[in-house]
Amino acid sequence: MILFNIKESISDELIKLAWDTFFVSRGRGVSFDYHFPWAKTDSNVWSIEAQHNGKVIAGLVVREQKLLLDSGTEIVGCIGLVCVHPDYRGKGIANDLFKRVIRSARNNKYVALTLWTNQHHIYQSKGFEVYDQSVYGSVTFLENDNSDCQYTIQKLPIGIGLPPFAKSGNQYVTNNAQISILWDDVGGVIVDWNGDDESIICLIKSIFPQSFRINSRMGCSIIKALQKEKCNININKTNLQMWLQLNESVIISELDALGRFGVLNRI
Do residues 14 and 66 share a domain? Predict the structure, then answer.
């Protein structure tokens, strides 16, 4: 018999299964703690695990995000690390996990659940719908004006992990701007920034004088500012984020706009 348990944390057994599934089997990754430093310390993280003969054979993780709406503080559950041991796949265990996570979210008055995937058909059958305002692509400067901003390189803030595709990440900081860059096998991807658009672009040109990749949101000011520069922009919607609305009084677009659902905050 397969037993399902809701836990207020993530067990070492589920961590190992997730690490083997998403990293070891794909020949990537640094360490689980490096990619998910919040997993063992964030009190807003819980999991559902499936056990057979005392062994964890499947599970998923939920990280709560609290949003301030007109109705008060509401909770969105971000789902990730959904995994089933290879020996137990095709037995409907993932469906059972989702029935339980949806039921638990409703019981705890969550307004929505969200996750990131390119396997839309799997989750559409569970009621999830695609709504994603993220864009990703490349930007190439057609002219190099030899920008030379002096910057320092720092580690990402404590508690910020790395997506599975990334090997490392850094912040690049000047007096007027700050950029977060993830590094993979191809190069760097700009995923977050602070400061005025002119200072940010100056810093970008100092780091990437010819071309770079960026993961942003539709209509963000930095994309509009880059469009005014002499550069070629090739970006498209990522269509990875899916939502399950649990409260009819809330609007998914409002939750998405209020929440911090960028690359650095996903599971």
Answer: yes
C-alpha to C-alpha distance for 113 and 64, rounded to whole angstroms:
9
Q: Is residue 10 within 8 Å of residue 39, measured between CB atoms? A: yes
Same domain, 53 and 88: yes
Question: How many domains are there within the chain?
Answer: 2
Query: Tell me: the pLDDT tens digits for 70-83?
Result: 888 999 999 999 99
Q: What is the pLDDT of residues 18-38, one digit of tens each?
A: 999 999 999 999 999 999 999
Nearest CA to 136 among 236, 263, 221, 241?
236
Q: Find where tokens 């595709």 sit.
A: 165
Whether 28 contacts 164, CB under 8 Å: yes
Q: What's the rounded Cα separation, in Å, for the pair 262 and 54?
A: 37
- Asked if 249 and 231 sit in the same domain, the reply is no
Q: Which amino acid is at 41?
A: T
Answer yes or no: do 149 and 125 share one domain: no
Amino acid at 199: S
Say yes or no: 244 and 149 in one domain.
no
**Any idea what the CATH number is for the domain that residue 112 is in?**
3.40.630.30
Amino acid at 147: S
Q: Which residues contact 110 (CB under 8 A, 6 or more apart)?
A: 64, 74, 75, 76, 77, 246, 247
Please return the burial class of 107, using the count of CB atoms within 10 Å of its CB with bins 0-12, 13-18 and 19+: exposed
Question: Which domain, by its residues, includes 75?
Answer: 2-132+239-265
One-letter identity of residue 145:
D
Residues 196 and 90 in one domain: no
* DSSP assignment letter at 174: -
Pairing assessment for the beta strands 188-195 and 55-69 based on DSSP bridges: unpaired
Q: Whole-prediction pTM value?
A: 0.93
DSSP states of 60-79: EEEEEEEEEETTEEEEEEEE
